[in-house]
What we know:
Blueprint (H helix, E strand, L loop, with lengths): L2 E3 L6 E10 L6 E8 L4 E5 L10 H6 L4
Antiparallel strand pairs: 1-2, 2-3, 3-4
Amino acid sequence: MDTTLCPECGALAEVQWRDILESTDGPVEHARIVCVDRHWFLLPVGRLERPEPTPAERRRSPAR
Length: 64
């Protein structure tokens, strides 16, 4: 599951789908997201924020 942060409330949000939409400047990849508080947005993928990793994810990541 691809996750991000809700731009309205900052809660965890799921990326439901991605698609390329045409614009006057050319094609732009967008994503539809829905957060746990049921806010939903259609955003360019460049505006998605990565959530902080959980402690379990930190333990699995290789040491730097």
